[in-house]
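Title: Comparing notes on inverse folding

I've been comparing how different people in this forum approach sequence design from structure. To keep things fair, I'm posting one structure and asking everyone to reply with a full sequence. Here's the target:
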């Protein structure tokens, strides 16, 4: 039973998460076999001030999240 955690910059829409969940589930089932209901995916939304890449906070790299930026 695969358990997958996907960490994202906060702001993705429910519809985008549905699409990702379906695509990842399809990939896991087609690669590993098994049933779709065996695949568990957890989305973790992270604020930009809580995420750093290359020693710089994402809020400093990209600025604050704008309304509907990730749709």
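Reply #1:
Here's my take.
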């Amino acid at each position: 039973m695969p358990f997958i955690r996907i960490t994202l910059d906060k702001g993705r829409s429910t519809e985008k998460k549905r699409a990702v969940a379906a695509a990842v589930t399809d990939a896991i089932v087609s690669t590993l076999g098994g049933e779709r209901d065996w695949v568990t995916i957890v989305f973790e939304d992270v604020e930009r001030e809580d995420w750093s890449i290359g020693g710089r906070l994402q809020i400093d790299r990209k600025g604050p999240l704008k309304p509907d930026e990730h749709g």
